[in-house]
Design a protein that fits this description.
alpha/beta; TIM Barrel; 11 helices; about 35% helix; binds flavin mononucleotide; binds the ligand CCCCCCC(=O)C(=O)O; flavoprotein; FMN; FMN-dep_DH; Aldolase_TIM
Length: about 350
Amino acid sequence: LLPRTMSMVCLSDFEAYAKKYLPKIAWDYFAAGADDCSTRDENILAYKRIRFRPHMLRDVSVMDIRTKILGSEISFPVGIAPTGFHQLAWPDGEKSTARGTLLTYSTCSLEEISEAAPGGLRWFQLYIHRNRAASQQLVQRAEALGFQALILTADLPYTGKRRDDVRNGFRLPPHMKVKNLEGYGLPPNSLDPSVTWNDIYWLRSLTRLPIIIKGILTREDAELAVKHGVQGIIVSNHGGRQLDEGPATIDALVEVVEAVRGRVEVYVDGGIRKGSDVLKALALGAKCVFIGRPALWGLAYKGEEGLQEVLRILQDEFRLSMALAGEYFVCNGCYRCFCMQACKIRSVMDR
Ligand SMILES: Cc1cc2nc3c(=O)[nH]c(=O)nc-3n(C[C@H](O)[C@H](O)[C@H](O)COP(=O)(O)O)c2cc1C
Ligand SMILES: CCCCCCC(=O)C(=O)O
């Protein structure tokens, strides 16, 4: 066991721990952004530019931070984003994160995860492979195992250029496998870069599960997503790991929410490191947010327990920010509740 003498107060403490104790190749893979990492870093900086307009004397003695996503209640509006290869952080891998999203590129199989967390809220993240029959089977396995939604990740026709991964010659250690793809004879780089919007119809023909599209950053694509019948949109730039120099997700969220006009649920991920970031995202119209790297840091710290600690800290910070801003219930992504002022330093939370 690694030393755990640090007292964990905020998510950056978990980051420091993971950086110190993970093997360099794993840390570099988790931390990586594309090219100069400017979008990765901008995801975080953009939150810092947003300021609250807090209101006082609003009786925040009783607070309700529950919300619903696609009809299911969650205890507070934070979920776990799909991130690859959890066994690089903790031996149990995705079994420890099974209450979140599970992905194609996991080091545990769909079946192992279902067994580890029966009955939990679970969505399956899909990459479409050139071998469509394999993708079809994955979708159908996920549906049969009780996953409640499909997330189609749209921003990875090819993997972005992550310099440290190139320098390190990153690949999975021989004892770790992409278990969901075993038996299909697929090389790991068999993703289909010819996927288009029409493939949403193909996916729809395979499953009755709600489809959520992940990786949307513009009003034009948000319109297309609604037109193609998805049930949800995750505003995401893959944690800045794909196209560098694109917008920070919290900035893109505003135009996506405006374009969608409440027709489907909108979520956001990227750069969420504090409870006040969650509040800002909600105030700007997200129904729920997802954390990627912070969940991996929690896993690296203490497996499932470490992840729970990350979530608990984020929940406490979120609750406190809400109370200090004069809010006592979660707005459920109803963007009309908040006045989004078009000033340089955007102010949120004014109703
Ligand atoms: C190590 C790592 C692996 C990832 N793997 C996937 C993946 O397999 N599928 C996917 O849709 N997104 C993947 N993502 C992107 C995350 O789902 C999410 O968009 C991003 O991590 C959010 O940013 P954050 O890390 O700043 O919270 C990955 C991100 C990281 C950091
Ligand atoms: C063949 C591509 C696999 C990438 C899986 C993980 C991922 O999305 C990442 O960002 O890393």
